[in-house]
């Protein structure tokens, strides 16, 4: 079975979901498949994976998974001695989403400042152009 596994869900044909456990040592090649279970419900997946001999499951040192609670539960129940590692894709995705949220927040703040400057210029009857970088320039 291997000491370093990966668990994930995948949609194969017509939206049918499967939970797949693979041995990372084989890098997706022949011999990597440890288990494939129809569905993603934790109880059902746990039931099937626990049919694998406990001694083999106890040898697993590390299991890589996404951030889904069901996958964490499956890993905890089936591979109790293994440490859980969140996969790189989901870590990068979360970081990118957080950065995007901050970028959008700052952009809205910059647009608010820009709009306030435009309103102030209109109240003071000034003809000005506000550049996106918030510099004020007089137009003759």
UniProtKB/TrEMBL annotation:
Start and end residues of each Transposase IS204/IS1001/IS1096/IS1165 DDE domain: 5-119
InterPro entries xref list: Transpos_ISL3, Transposase_DDE
Highest taxon listed in the record's lineage: Bacteria
Protein name stated in the entry: Transposase IS204/IS1001/IS1096/IS1165 DDE domain-containing protein
């Amino acid at each position: 079975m291997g000491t370093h596994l990966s668990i994930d869900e995948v949609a194969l044909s017509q939206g049918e979901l499967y939970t797949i456990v693979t041995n990372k040592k084989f890098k997706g090649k022949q011999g990597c498949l440890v288990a494939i279970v129809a569905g993603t419900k934790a109880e059902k997946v746990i039931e099937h994976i626990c049919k694998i001999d406990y001694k083999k499951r106890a040898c697993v040192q590390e299991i890589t998974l996404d951030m889904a609670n069901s996958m964490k539960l499956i890993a905890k129940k089936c591979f109790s001695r293994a440490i859980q590692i969140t996969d790189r894709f989901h870590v990068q995705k979360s970081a990118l989403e957080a950065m995007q949220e901050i970028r959008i927040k700052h952009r809205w703040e910059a647009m608010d400042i820009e709009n306030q400057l435009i309103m102030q210029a209109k109240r003071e009857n000034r003809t000005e152009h506000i550049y996106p970088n918030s510099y004020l320039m007089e137009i003759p």
